[in-house]
Amino acid sequence: MIVVMKRDATRENVERVKEEARHFDLEPIEMPGDERMIVALKGDERKVVTGRFKSLAGVSDVLPVLKKYKMSSRDTKWEDSVVDLGDGLRIGGKQQVVMAGPCTIETEPQLRAAANAVRKEGVRILRGGAYKPRTSPYAFQGLGLEGLKMIRAVADELQMKVITELMDIRKIDELCRYADIIQIGARNMQNYDLLSEVGKCGKPVMVKRGLSATLEEFLLAAEYIVSEGNTNVILCERGIRTFESEVRFTLNLGVVPILKNLTHLPIIIDPSHAMGRREYVTDMALAALAVGSHGIIVEVHCNPEEALCDGPQSLTPEMFTNLMNRAEKISAAVDMPLVRKY
Ligand code: PEP
Ligand code: MN
Question: Angle 191-192-194 (CA atoms, 0-180°, nearest 5)?
Answer without folding.
Answer: 70
